[in-house]
Amino acid sequence: MSNIIQEEIEKIRKMMLSENMVQEGGEKKLKETLDILKKKKKVLLLSCSNRHNWDPKNIDVPKSKILAMYLNEELGDKSVFIDVSELKIFPCEGNVSREDGNSCGLLKALLKDDKKNPSGYHRCWASLNNKTDELWKISKELFEADAVVFFSSVRWGQANMFYQNLIERLTWIENRHNTLGEKNIVEGIETGFICVGQNWNGEDVTKTQMKVHEFYGFEPNKKLYWNWQYTTDVYDEKQSSYKKSHKKFIDDMGL
């Protein structure tokens, strides 16, 4: 992790301790999330938001990533933080709906690499067909965790492309037990989904992803599914609104 990111984490941690920054709402949800995750043996935190930075001395960290970084700092050795936007994850090949049937997650798609696939669970054609694909960096940690929390921004009323690409590439998890009749390889793993948006559809995005995770065979914890949205006015696209939203977010989270 770069020194810049480490400094950002330390700044966030110090702000959390400032009494005059304590707010209600988002901070309560964040604290409840932390309390739940502290009881887990190993937590996987998957940050799916990106932000381009022109000035390396003034890093602008995505809001949902700030939450993931804070939780990772507080959880210490029991958590693993992965920035999904920095990984090379190829698109899903769509092998679920082929003319000859559903071939997603077949044994023939097994990733034969003890380092990348120590559990032996990873079966994805895109991983085999793209040698530089890095989905294994997530699946390897996932099968060792007892809880995984996804963090995403809301873009145009849906979870952003990094999250959507990731969840589509994990379709073989659902397919193995729902279509192929094998065991549920994520049974007992609790999930959460935390998203941040500006003005549209965050609540529905969160509810949809909780259902998706249930379909996959995970055990969604309702208390770990929540969103923060600056305004409910879907037509509020003013520049001033975007600038104010960041401060409001920091205040609401007690950061």
Description:
It is a single chain. With 255 residues, the chain is of the alpha/beta class. The chain has a domain at 21-91 and 145-250: 3-Layer(aba) Sandwich (Rossmann fold). Helix content is 38%, strand content 16%. The protein is built from nine helices and six strands; from the N terminus they run H-H-E-H-E-H-H-E-E-H-H-E-H-E-H. Strand 3 and strand 4 form a beta hairpin. Helix 2 crosses helix 9. Residues 15-24 have low confidence and may be disordered.
| Oligomeric state | single chain
Instruction: Write down the overall geometry.
Output: globular
CATH architecture call of one domain: 3-Layer(aba) Sandwich
**Which class of one domain in CATH terms?**
Alpha Beta
Low-confidence stretches: 15-24
Average pLDDT, to the nearest integer?
Answer: 91
Radius of gyration: 19 Å
Observed structural traits:
six-stranded mixed β-sheet, 255 residues, 9 helices, single chain, globular, Rossmann fold, alpha/beta
Short description:
With 255 residues, this protein is an alpha/beta fold. It contains nine helices and six strands.
Sequence-ordered SSE layout with sheet pairings:
Blueprint: H1 3-16, H2 26-37, E1 43-47, H3 63-75, E2 79-83, H4 125-129, H5 136-142, E3 147-155, E4 158-159, H6 161-169, H7 171-178, E5 190-197, H8 202-216, E6 219-229, H9 239-253
Helix pairs in contact: 2-9
